[in-house]
Design goal:
This protein has 245 residues and is of the alpha/beta class. The chain is built from nine helices and six strands, in the order βαβαβαβαβαβαααα. The mean pLDDT is 89.
């Protein structure tokens, strides 16, 4: 299937690894010029993108600066992928409500600031935004604290954008379930800490997750599978899809 992305320009946030990297790679395979942002630039991102921008999108200046750098490098943005979120694996906590603010800043406001900065170019080019939310926007999880609340707000934010700017800019959201990213699978990552909190071995938790979450496929989803859906929604091939989750 031709997604008609040859020559299109794209900014992907949180592109250093996981879903974001898979999206950047898929866009590049389809012929798009990709700029990726991440707090830590990985060799994989440098290999994929025409420019890799180190940026902390949990600050307004970091978000707007990253968009401006992308505009300078690309000459304009056709596609914005708001993927940054979740949280750094080494700082995610299983704590309570008083620790919610960092989660909201990273998972909601980074997308708000980035979208605001990119919209003039997206409107001019009749582009598209796809934001990565989570199934936990609809099925709340108790931890990490604030994650479900932020992703629910991100879902509502994207619906709001779709109503105001469609059809000039198509805005859609993808809300994955449990995805087998490094955050979950790395032996020193968040998944390992969840396993320890449950009194389980890490590999036991990974094997049990499809059953725990009643995943219909019986397995974890892979980042590349999410990337396929995100890139389709961002492309002209999905030109009639507006405001969907």
């Amino acid at each position: 299937m031709n997604l008609h992305l040859e020559g299109k320009t794209a900014l992907v946030t949180g592109a250093g690894r996981g879903i974001g990297l898979a999206v950047a790679q898929r866009l590049a395979q389809e012929g798009a010029q990709v700029v990726g942002t991440a707090r830590t630039i990985t060799p994989e991102l440098e290999k994929t993108a025409i420019a890799a921008i180190p940026a902390d999108l949990a600050t307004p200046g970091g978000a707007t600066g990253a968009v401006q750098s992308a505009l300078d490098g690309l000459g304009g943005i056709d596609i914005l992928i708001n993927n940054v979120g979740g949280g750094d694996a080494d700082t995610l906590k299983l704590g309570g409500f008083l620790e919610w603010q960092n989660m909201f800043t990273l998972n909601l406001f980074s997308a708000v600031w980035t979208s605001h900065a990119a919209l003039p170019s997206l409107i001019e080019r009749k582009g598209s935004i796809v934001s990565v939310s989570s199934i936990n926007a609809l099925i709340p999880t108790p931890s990490p604290v604030g994650y479900s609340e932020a992703k629910a707000a991100l879902l509502a934010f994207n619906k709001r954008l779709s109503e105001e700017f469609g059809p000039r800019v198509r805005v859609n959201t993808v809300s994955p379930g449990t995805v087998g990213t490094g955050r979950l699978r790395d032996p020193d990552g968040y998944g390992a800490r969840v396993a320890a909190a449950r009194g389980m071995k890490h590999e036991e938790l990974l094997a049990a997750l499809p059953s725990i979450f009643k995943i219909a496929s019986g397995r974890l989803t892979e980042p590349e599978e999410i990337a396929d859906l995100v890139v389709f929604l961002a492309s002209p091939a999905a030109s009639s899809v507006v405001g969907a989750n």
